[in-house]
Amino acid sequence: MSGTIWSVDEHLEDILAAVKPLEPIELHLPDAQGCVLVDDVVVQVALPPFDNSSMDGYAVRISDVEGASEEFPAVLTVIGDVAAGDGGLPDGRSVGPGEAARIMTGAPLPRAPRRSSRSSGPTGARVPARPRACGPTATPRRGRAVRSVSTVR
Description:
This protein has helices at 8-18, 62-65; strands at residues 41-43, 57-60, 74-82, 99-103, 115-117, 126-129, 134-135, 150-152. The protein is mainly beta.
């Protein structure tokens, strides 16, 4: 090797000939930081597993707030609360016409609503809903982060 100039490819070949992959080992997740997976991870469930609210506010029906404005808000009756970790409204109830459900960040969106509206007020209160406070970004869809049976790389 002395006196001979090696090309980059020759150096690479020499290094790769000396390096061998390590045997796979099993580790608990907290101990695996900085390690590389041997096999792909296939997610079996969608993440998030349901449409949810990305902010505290109210779950409302689009048809109830269409055309509402600051001057003429849609007035809705609050029928209950949905907290993160809940399965939705009691008894699987959905939000009906003229109704809203108080909803917390991360909570599953009750059936029918497709929007969350920022606001606050007591259960049973009539809550003014304004479309400017509503939007599709307030409702992350099921599987938005990871789809069911997909490979995570």
